[in-house]
């Protein structure tokens, strides 16, 4: 509010800055894009400090001022987060987090949708809708679906902390990379090279819209050494979705020195258990999915 007052008849008035709908801005510069995304993150952090979450981050609900600072409009605030597991029914709450502690999956999905729009306009949103990836992964967000909980997803960052991979100066391969979060995180942590592969072409288009990393449209069974050798590989919640999972694991271990494998236990048959016999189980997700570290 720039100014406010009251007329003689008792009417209260406010002078507000002039805003432009985000969807009216065509081809914003990279600097403008960064300003908008930073402003949105700052606004959400403010809400989190108050113990609130926001569930309607979308290009249609964002306006910007002359300095390209964003403002969220026309939304409902979610209920205050009490730290309980509030997935499935109310996925916009903060799952398993203390009051004001973290962004929610719904907010992250919204932010990545906005990023896709800023980078590629309506084409960016079309790519999101064309993707065959499920859950929030379709929107490029760093989240992976939880089994049986379509509206609830856990952050990739949690698994990263569990794995604690040493990627500095190393080459990294992410099999089933979705929108490339692990690729970009590897580069951020000092990897010399990071490659992501996924059979879903639209999701690879989304991954390529973000800076950093190499991406290929291919599945795990397409690997035959054409991408070179890797120091570290991620095979996270992939084996239960492919035919011949044992062959898939063997293909990855042949081209990588260290492989992180995540898979629900019920999909581990005798043959796969034999391949993982000497692997170190380094952690387990909140849904009971073990994470193994396979070293050649």
UniProtKB/TrEMBL annotation:
Starting at the broadest rank, the lineage of the source organism is: unclassified sequences, metagenomes, ecological metagenomes
- The name of this protein is Protein kinase domain-containing protein
Q: Which organism is it from?
A: marine sediment metagenome
One Pfam family it belongs to:
Methyltransf_9
Gene3D superfamilies (UniProt xref): Transferase(Phosphotransferase) domain 1 (1.10.510.10), Vaccinia Virus protein VP39 (3.40.50.150)
The protein's GO terms of the molecular function aspect are: ATP binding; protein kinase activity
Domain named Protein kinase: which ranges? 1-204
InterPro entries per the UniProt record, alphabetical:
Kinase-like_dom_sf, Mo5U34_MeTrfas-like, Prot_kinase_dom, SAM-dependent_MTases_sf
């Amino acid at each position: 509010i720039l100014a406010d007052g009251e007329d003689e008849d008792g009417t209260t008035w406010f002078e507000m800055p002039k805003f432009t709908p985000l969807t009216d801005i065509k081809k914003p510069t990279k600097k403008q894009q960064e300003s908008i995304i930073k402003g949105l993150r700052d606004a959400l952090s403010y809400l989190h400090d108050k113990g609130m979450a926001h569930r309607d981050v979308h290009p249609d609900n964002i306006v910007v001022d002359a300095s390209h600072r964003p403002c969220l409009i026309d939304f409902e605030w979610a209920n205050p987060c009490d730290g309980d597991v509030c997935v499935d029914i109310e996925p916009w709450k903060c799952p398993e987090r203390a009051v004001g502690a973290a962004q929610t999956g719904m907010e992250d999905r919204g932010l990545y949708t906005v990023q896709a729009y800023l980078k590629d306009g309506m084409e960016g949103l079309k790519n999101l809708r064309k993707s065959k990836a499920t859950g929030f992964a379709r929107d490029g967000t760093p989240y992976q679906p939880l089994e049986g909980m379509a509206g609830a997803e856990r952050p990739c960052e949690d698994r990263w902390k569990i794995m604690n991979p040493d990627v500095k100066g190393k080459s990294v391969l992410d099999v089933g990379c979705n929108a490339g979060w692990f690729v970009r995180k590897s580069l951020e942590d000092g990897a010399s090279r990071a490659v992501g592969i996924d059979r879903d072409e639209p999701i690879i288009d989304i991954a390529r819209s973000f800076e950093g990393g190499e991406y290929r449209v291919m599945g795990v069974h397409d690997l035959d050494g054409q991408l070179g050798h890797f120091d570290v590989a991620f095979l996270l919640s992939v084996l239960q979705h492919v035919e011949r999972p044992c062959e898939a694991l063997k293909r990855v271990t042949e081209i990588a020195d260290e492989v992180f494998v995540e898979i629900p236990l019920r999909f581990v048959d005798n043959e796969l258990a034999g391949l993982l016999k000497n692997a170190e189980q380094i952690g387990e997700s909140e849904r009971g999915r073990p994470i193994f570290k396979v070293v050649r």
